[in-house]
What does this fold into?
Amino acid sequence: SMGEAIPPSPSPSPEATAGTVQEEQATLPHPKSGQPVKGFTLTAMESNWELASGVTQAVWTYNGTVPGQEIRVTQGDFVRVTLKNELQVPVTIHWHGYPVTAGSDGVPGITQDAVKPGETYTYGFTADVAGTYWYHSHQESSEQVDKGLYGALIVEPEQSEQPDKDYTLILDEWMKEGGDAHGAHGSGSMSDEEMMASMYNIYTVNGKSGSLIKSLEANLGDTVRLRFINAGYRSHGIHIPGEFRVVSTDGQEIAEPAVVKDEIVNIAPGERYDIELKINSPKDYAIEAHDDNKYNDQLVIPVKVSGSKGEEMEVQHDQLTAFDLYNYGKPAESELSKVQKFALEYTAVLNSKMNGNGQVYTINDKVFSELPALQVKTGDYVKLTFENQGTVDHPMHVHGHFFQVLEKNGIKVESAIMKDTVMVKPGDKIVIAFKADNPGNWMIHCHELHHAAGGMAQQLTYT
Ligand code: C2O
Ligand code: CU
It folds into this structure.
């Protein structure tokens, strides 16, 4: 049962399906009487999907599309999602960022058994926290998310002014089958990381690249909400032209977000940024990637403003600055920034090394199967420090809890920024804190999912 310790996984992957915990199904939460219920069925299935003009590939999907069907509900709803598995491999659904109760977290071997081919499994939770979240398989996730098993989970606030337009934009990158990237394999001079980067050569938003990206429509005077979700393994710098505010990150509102202009918002794997654009000139926009590679022209999202006559807003491309989340929003003293004594303080040094299996990604020099679970009690305050001593980015994700970023590289973050995924770049030291308020067994791992599969994961358990 959930109260017992999980035996250490025999494999370095956090996704090994150890033990039989399918009886959790019986203990899933149920709606309260009178609570509105929103029901969905997500069928994991193969599909052929046109990623880019002339490039159609075999993908894995929820309900036949990439991304899978959007789950959009209203705060207070009970959400019931039945997963039907029509693939030849086991799958699950993990609700990334949404603080579900542990039985619905979708981590095989930890909260459930993976759902076998032909089987179904039902997830249930009350959507009481508004915001932008997403869902994805957590079984062999470095492969399954890569193949398309993901979608958006949007919880609309119960009472608040709705934007005029509300668009979900999920970023991802793909490898063209039989494409030029395969030439990189034998070269020997590339690191694993460089090789991986060079293999992704199709960049998509909502499963479409380049000319297949649908333009967004807006009217002069509209407030347009753009919900960016990064479902891929590379960070994407997205240039937002004109005036905008970043109103939330990882589903959590930012207090008093100021208007910024013409900035690049860097979105790490797993992160979300909600942007509110005020359409105050009758010109079209081009929201485009400013990544450090040759594929930027594949990621251009046109915003067509009615009455624009096709005129596009001008941008000084050489003067663009990067949006700085940690110096944004109103300085605030939160419960977490006032904590005097943390029940657990833990430093996770992130790195990689070679062992008998090739390259592994480590926390304190160990891989998942060698790392003890972090132990907490309900009500504990927990402080984690992520220190990246390696050479590649590690966007670190904590399941089941929102955390506050307290410090970045020795500098206190004055605004109480709440997140579930935080980018830790080489050399960075990031301090986060959360309250242990969601009993269960949870994962902490890098969201470059190859790194998680390669060992960079640790469990958090309640005693
Ligand atoms: Cu989105 Cu354990 O991950
Ligand atoms: Cu990583």
Residues 192-199 form the longest helix (8 residues). Residues 301 and 440 are 40 Å apart (CA to CA). The chain has three domains: 22-160, 169-327, 336-462.
